[in-house]
Amino acid sequence: MSALEKLGKDVGTALKHGPGERRARQLPALLAVDWGRRRRTAWALRAVPALAVAAAIAVVAVWLHGRGSRSAPPATTIELVADGALEEGRWLQVDERALRMTFADESEVLLEPRSVARFSPRSGGDARLTLEAGELRARIRPATVTGRSWSFNAGPFRVLVVGTELSVGWNAQENLLSVHVLHGRVQVRGGPLEPNGLLLASDDRLQVRHGQILIQRGPRSVEELAATTPTTVSPPPAPEKAPTEPVRPAKPMTSSAPSAPGWQELARAGDYRQALTSAEQEGFEPLIERLGAADLALLADAARLGGNASRARQALLTLRRRFPTVAAAQVGAFRLGRLAVAQHDYGEAATWFETYLKSAPSGPLAAEAAGRLIETRARSGNRSGAEAAARDYLARFPGGAYESVARALLRGDKLVPK
Amino acid sequence: MAWMGSDEDLLALARRGDRGAAAAAVYSRFSDDINRLVWRVLGADAEHDDVVHQVFVNVVAGLGKVRDAERLKSWITSVCVKTVRSEIRRRRVRRFFHTGPSEIHRIAAPVEDHEARELLEKAYTLLDALPVDERIAFVLRYIDERPLLEVAEACDCSLATIKRRLGKAEQRFSRLASRDSALAERLARGSRGSVAPEPRMKELA
Questions:
Q1: Alpha carbons A289 and A275: distance in angstroms, whole number
Q2: What pTM does this model have?
């Protein structure tokens, strides 16, 4: 088996769990597809380039002429109580007639003709509608009243609704997002608006096209945003910004939003660098002295996987000092060994692998630690120690991943190219 | 409910125009294969369900055109590959226009084992850097462990083309992996552990 085949096999093994229980939602979503409607709208999908141009012209026209189209109702509208569609995560394809959906929380969403969207069922009381193409208008009851938080996704953007009436348009071909807040406040995140997003208030209009941001502040906006306390929402971007001023890149907010995820959440989501940054902002050193063992191990992993070896080492050493008897501390010894290997300090690495093997001789990483012990002893010049480790390895893990390394060493092969 | 009929029955269902029933039957018959393939090509992806949904929509839409029931499975695999290819290209366009922190968290920490999670993250970061056709060929060959002929069929190209594509993918992946100490170490270990490393392209020569 070649090295690439072995690597591919390991990746396949690591992925073996597959999507798991998430699959439970796939069949209901597939069965919810309206195949008849798909056929009727197929012509529109084939004419996407022409429609994209037409949509762009229409959006620009709306942009230039202010509120002209704000209240223009569609010629025909289908009404639907859509709590079921929300629960089931249905796809929605709207033909020539707009689709008005009402919900138990008294919120309303209107999908304009020829729009495509889909609900994402979420845990808790949240509701999320992803606009694949087209435009929607929504009147959302405040989450503080209904307990349901609404958000609209469009391409890489996410519009978090505080409680408002707004319209959102998305054209994937043109990479064009347009948001118009009629009343209330929303936060728009994603793409060039990261990391802190952009807060919009009444009468504000936002367009993001190919990374270019265009904000038109409404007359009520600055006052409303200024009145917002920092504990509830982020302050607005620079108030001196002139209406319709093109901005690139987005001006970051001066304080983080209250809903910004903590370092634990970021680490669990795999965003290690951001998790570490967040932990640094909290104060890394006091943090590692007060965290529990599990969180401390998580922080160490975030630092290690985020590429900051010194912080990872610091967290792991603290973990072992404060919680010497927990399993995470044993694994910590193995991790410290790996960090030392990365720093080419093979003597220290060997010591940590020995420490792990002494504390967890049958632990889940024992075979790996025993194999690495052979290599690190050999690399540190401890030939006799490496041979002893190789003999131990072959006795304990015959057929293991390091078998060939152990045998080569005992044959007298030069294991480490100088 | 599991589909108990044959692939011929399934195609007959599609030809009658009963797309809802055909969708349920196709899902029952092929959901494992499609989920596995999408999961492996994209990795543990936050939008996995959406991509799988699109694959099934494409499959059901084209099912009526399939004439040979024996070719159904390979046809569905090729539809799956084409859909995933489009998805990857769409994401690349998005990323091109929205530089900065990537909005797509490709690996959603699917496993408890940190070693495995790290391997997945690094491997799929490298795969992200491969041209899409090379990435798909590489995944089908090495991660999904398919024979070359099947890879060629799934990618809808000749054996010679897939060999060339895989050769380039191997070179590119190995070069990128050599820049990462952990992956380089893993590949070096794999080389040392191999009994008789055959040049890959000689396999079917």
A1: 17
A2: 0.42
